[in-house]
Amino acid sequence: MLFRRRAASMFMFIRRLLYFALICGLLWLLWLGLRGVMSTGEDNQAVKVLNDFYTMEQSGNFGGSWELFHSQMKKKFEKSTYVQQRAHVFMQDMGTDTFTFELGEPQAEYDIRTDQDGEGVGKAYRITVTQHYKTRFGTFNIVQPCYVTQEGEEWRVLWVYKEKE
User: Nearest Cα to 146, choosing from 68, 63, 81?
Assistant: First the structure.
């Protein structure tokens, strides 16, 4: 008789545990579904543009990457100057012809300015880029926060030059 009570008690415990696990699983699926519905996909678009930018840079297509700059960046660099300087610094001075890179997770930020006096661009996604170089001077990494924002209908890349506050 005692054995049957313990077995029944154990059965009830396992049954409650399974119900609890089922409810937790359903809540988790609901959360994932809501997160997907609530997401605008903008962060994915921002990552794609930045990935395209650095893929072009990686292959030496500095003119193509320049085209993905925000108009504020294009004011800082004329296309021919940008192409010449990027090729000179990375390929000639450092003695490397390519690099690998990693993109961090996008984080939405607001009122981004390229410099202290620059015009704000509203909402932008900050994505940390890590470039890995193997050069004649050794192996090193460049870590740079980049921003991607919409300009008209297009997503564009920004670098920030403001002083630390």
Answer: 68
Distance of CA 7 to the CA centre of its chain: 54
Tens-digit pLDDT profile for residues 111-150 = 887 776 677 888 999 999 999 999 888 999 999 999 999 9
Side chain identity at 59, as an amino acid letter?
S
User: Tell me: domain 42-159, CATH 3.30.70.60, correct?
Assistant: no
Helix H or strand E encompassing 139: strand 138-151
pLDDT tens digits, residue range 18-48? 888 888 888 888 877 665 555 558 889 999 9
Quote the DSSP letter at residue 132. E
Q: How far apart are CA 97 and CA 21, in angstroms?
A: 53
Q: How far apart are CA 127 and CA 148, in angstroms?
A: 8
d(CA 55, CA 47): 12
Q: The pTM is what?
A: 0.72
**Burial tier of 51 (Cβ tally within 10 Å: 0-12, 13-18, 19+):** middle
- How far is it, in rounded angstroms, from Cα 126 to Cα 94? 27
Who's near 119: CB < 8 A, 6+ residues apart? 72, 113
**How many helices and strands (H and E) does the chain possess?**
5, 5
